[in-house]
Amino acid sequence: MWGRRRRGAGPSGCGAEELRARRREREAALRRARRQEQLVSKRLLREDAEEGGRDGARTVPGPLPEGEILELLRGVQRGSEDRRGSLRRLRWALQNRETQQKFVRLEGSIRTLVGLFTSSQADVQMEAARGLHELSHSSDPAVAEACLPVTSYLLTYLSGHSVEFTELCLYTLGNLVVESEAVRKQLLPQGIVPVLASCIQSPHEAVLEGLGYALSQLLQAKEAPTEIIPLVLDSVLPQHMLRLVCSGLKAGTGAAVEFAWCLHYIICSHTASVALLSLGALPALASLLLDLASELPQDLPEGLELLVCPVLRCLGNLLVEETGSEGLTRDQRLLIALFLILQGFLQQHPFIVQESLWLLNNLTADDPFFCSALLSLDLLPALLQLLPCSQMACVLVLTVLCNVAAKGPAYCQQLHQGGTLPLLLPTLALPDPGAVGQGLELLHLLFLHWPEAVPDFVRQGGHQALEQLQSTPELQERAQALLDMVGQPQGASTFSPCMATLSTFSWDTPPPFPPPAL
Questions:
Q1: Domain co-membership, 380 together with 348
Q2: Both 291 and 271 in a single domain?
Q3: Using the 8-state DSSP alphabet, how is residue 40 labeled?
Q4: Per residue in 249-280, pLDDT tens?
Q5: By the number of CB atoms within 10 A of the CB, which of 7, 113, 186, 206 ranks highest?
Q6: What is the CATH number of the domain that holds 395?
Q7: Is 485 within the bounds of a domain?
Q8: How many whole angstroms separate alpha carbon 35 and alpha carbon 518?
Q9: Exposed/middle/buried for 98, CB within 10 Å: 0-12, 13-18, 19+?
Q10: 96 with 64: CB under 8 angstroms?
Q11: Whether 173 and 64 share a structural domain
Q12: What pLDDT was estimated at residue 413?
């Protein structure tokens, strides 16, 4: 929620920038957990003063006895002047999971809260909305389903005049739809997609960011490809999402990040990429990547990496659907932009390296143009320097090099002359069989297309490195084949290809190694 308005520091004296940084860190952790472990992520809007102590931790109230919860309910039902105070105390108590569970089991509790949510008194309505928002953040599905009666009102109030109230309703909807199928089944016939579409031309950054969050949660539902994405495609949402993502550097980064993830989830459904391609998504996102690279200063703007990440993924997966890079008009600047981004984010945000390499792999997998450009622009040294960055980066760099080597003798000659072998040899001693196997595939291509590399490999101790791999069962056959190859006279190889087909990768169907962490 880095685009939200701030209303001062919390009790520890933390400034708005520090609080914003903490929220961004938490959001990054949520996205990482959701991608790696398929966990549900939810967001919570609270006053800055409630953010907690110096370490960023909140003080969660202890569970209330049922009698005290009943007393709070009576207080909000009396209509006294202190109704708002009672609501505030109830909302604070609902931060506790056990209290939430007790509250929703009490007869009439949700009905009372919904009644106050529809009040004509703005301050009472806002406090009731905050209480419902606390309930929507619960990790207990029963609590979310108890909130079913409020969903139609949440949709109605999205057309309200208060930006803060609209924002709160959007985040409450986003929290409810992500976990409960019952909530989604109720909201779809109520017209949640058309209502969300009506919000996308709002001039308010906070509303747009909340809208992007709610929509991204909805698009992650298991039934999204068949029941939700078709409705989204029939609305005005796609073209406006693309516009907002591509204006992220000039407008609000927060909204651009959310809608970029929305596009990513749509593309990964394999049901809508044609529609997005027809809107010009591929050249538009490529142009945005060029802009992002050209704007990179030494001190990166806070949160920019969270926009770069889904943009890279969208481009990479659209290339899979495009089955080629024709839509990018074969622009060499795209490679330069990728390497500028790699350099700019390497130290502070190394996960961007892996994201960039995924896109580079998909660019070079089937297209000689980008393989040639990689070499002619003298980007090979920069690529080779990424080999030791991480296990994942090593595998991806080797995969890109295989893409290049597969194009034939001229490419393999340049890889050899560019100093690939000295940096490739250490990868054969890595403990990861995936990285070693990819290194062996690269050696096979080099020896097959450019036999002059064989004696150089032997002089550098390659024969011994291959012999050591014979004790690894899954690598033994390939290592022996290469040993047979290097033992033959130069140019006499009859080595049969054992290389797995090199193809583009898509994030929704990962290869046999884990996705990078955000």
A1: yes
A2: no
A3: -
A4: 776 788 999 999 999 999 988 777 788 988 99
A5: 113
A6: 1.25.10.10
A7: yes
A8: 9
A9: exposed
A10: yes
A11: yes
A12: 97
Q: Which amino acid is at 190?
A: Q
pLDDT higher than threshold 90 for residue 374: yes
Using the 3D structure, point to which of 361, 388, 406 is the last residue of a domain. 406
Nearest one of 311, 391, 379 to 350, comparing CA atoms: 391
**Which of 302, 205, 210 lies closest to 262 in space, CA to CA?**
210
* Within a domain: 19: no
pLDDT of residue 215: 96
Q: In angstroms, what CA-CA distances link 30 with 48, 51, 97, 335, 513? A: 20, 17, 19, 30, 21
CA 217, 222, 225, 226 dihedral sign is: negative
Task: Choose the most confident range, by mean pLDDT, from 55-59, 205-209, 366-370, 380-384.
Answer: 380-384
Q: What is the rounded radius of gyration, in angstroms, for the C-alpha atoms of the chain?
A: 27
- Work out the pLDDT band at 17, boundaries 50, 70, 90: very low
Is 60 exceeded by the pLDDT of residue 79? yes
Q: How far is CA 94 from the centre of its chain?
A: 30
Is residue 1 included in any domain, yes or no?
A: no
324 and 274 in a common domain: no
- B/e letters for 230-251, b = 16+ CB within 10 Å, e = fewer, are bbbbebebbebbbebbbebeeb
- The structure tokens listed for 113 are 């809260």
**Mean pLDDT rounded to a whole number for the chain:** 82
Same domain, residue pair 132 and 218 = no
Residue carrying the six token digits 């390939």: 478
Distance between CA atoms of residues 278 and 42, nearest Å: 33
Report yes or no on 17 lying in a domain.
no
Residues 163 and 88 placed together within one structural domain of the fold? yes
In whole angstroms, how far apart are CA 313 and each of 372, 438, 512? 23, 23, 18
Question: Mean pLDDT across the stretch 289-304?
Answer: 78
Q: What DSSP assignment string belongs to 155-194?
A: HHGGG-S-HHHHHHHHHHHHHHHHH-HHHHHHHTTTTHHH
Indicate whether 64 and 186 sit together in one domain: yes
Helix (H, G, I), strand (E, B) or coil at 100: helix
- The Cα 126–Cα 162 span in angstroms is 10
Are 423 and 460 in the same domain?
Answer: yes
What percentage of the chain has pLDDT greater than the value 70? 80
Concatenated DSSP letters of 456-509: HHHHTTHHHHHHHGGGSHHHHHHHHHHHHHHTSPTT---PPP-PPPP---BTTB
Distance CA 124, CA 132 (A): 12
Which residue among 229, 245, 279 closes a domain? Answer: 279
Structure confidence at residue 77 (pLDDT) = 83
> Structurally, how many domains does the chain consist of?
4
